[in-house]
Amino acid sequence: MTLEHGGPDLGAEIRWDFSTNANPMGPMAGAMHALAEADRRTYPEPTYLALRTALSGAGLGPVDRLLPTAGNAEAIRRLTLAAKLAGTTQVWVPGPGYGEYRAAAEVLGLAVRAYGSVAELAAQWQPASGRQLIWLCEPCNPTGEDVSADTWAQLLAWLPTWQAAGHTLAVDRAYAPMRLDGLDPLPSALAQAAWQLWSPNKTMGCTGVRAGLMVAPADAAASQGWPDVAALAPSWVLGSEGVALLQAWVSDSVQGSLRVQRVVWRAWLQEQQRALRERGWQVRESVVPFFLAQPPQGVDVAAMLTGLRQRGIKLRDAASLGLPGWCRLRVMSPAAQAALMDALGALGQMPVAHATSSDSPDAEAA
Question: How far is Cα 236 from Cα 48, in angstroms, rounded to an integer?
Fold first, then answer.
């Protein structure tokens, strides 16, 4: 099974890549320095104690609850396998949402159900249907939206029932370090009860380095009957580059650079969305430097994406994410934005003031 992702493909070189969710300003200097200094002569220390201690010191959780991963895709596969071995029979995935959740479940023969909102999940959820794994992405990919306060309140209210039934909540936090607005919204009670997945390679502009972290629940009952999730990983699941990237991520210098970069990202986001709106696109608001946008009515999206790709510009077709007719765009520099707008003009999408679409992402996902 081949999943569709953003980034390089079998076509010509991409000059302006709007299709990934990586750092809009490219690789961070602190990350590149750490990678250059990584010691490739030996295996990493196999328990990753120094790394886990550094990550714990940055507030990500107690050392004994931190499990290094080869990025979120590997973590999703491993956590889903652990859930199946513990007796899980059904997996709930957000829709629209990242395809790895569904793929990881289906390859193991687990039933998969999609939900568009927590209210919809509540309406469909059957407590007696066996152990279940519920995925949540915060901020969400591909929408770029926060989980609302009402949603967190609903989840907290259901948590005791879920735990009593042996269900598992997993929160994908790959984009939390890229948040442009607001504070971390995850309630502490859920942070203690849920699995959390972190993968900062996008934040640091180094998607070619596969490195991440799982935070196990604090409540032992949340993993009752589960196998040892750390033991399901291969030895040295992280190479020296991955260790270096994670250590750099929590360093004071990189965190300081990120605070400065977020100011620039926010300005670029606003300008990119404004320019698309002027061309009649419908644009969805976002708290991270990527967002959903729909071309004007009547535009052949597939033909448009092909035309852009031929000009060295790649957008992410959101159909594989559950939103046909929409695109997901990374925020990029003014030069990249100008190239995109020029290409859209060459393809016949000239500025159209105040044009809107009657469709919405929610309607498409339903």
Answer: 9
- Alpha carbon dihedral 303, 305, 310, 312, in 10-degree steps, equals 170
CA distance 163 to 155: 12
Q: Is the pLDDT of residue 1 over 80?
A: no
Beta bridge partners of 153: none
Mean pLDDT of the chain: 89
Instruction: State the DSSP code for 294.
Output: E
- CA 50 vs. chain centroid, Å, equals 26
Measured at the CA of 343, the angle between CA 301 and CA 282, to 5 degrees, comes to 45
Global pTM value: 0.89
Burial category of 296 from C-beta neighbours within 10 Å (exposed 0-12, middle 13-18, buried 19 and up): middle
Extended strands (E) in the chain: 16-17, 66-69, 88-94, 111-115, 131-137, 168-172, 195-198, 212-215, 282-283, 290-294, 313-314, 316-317, 327-330
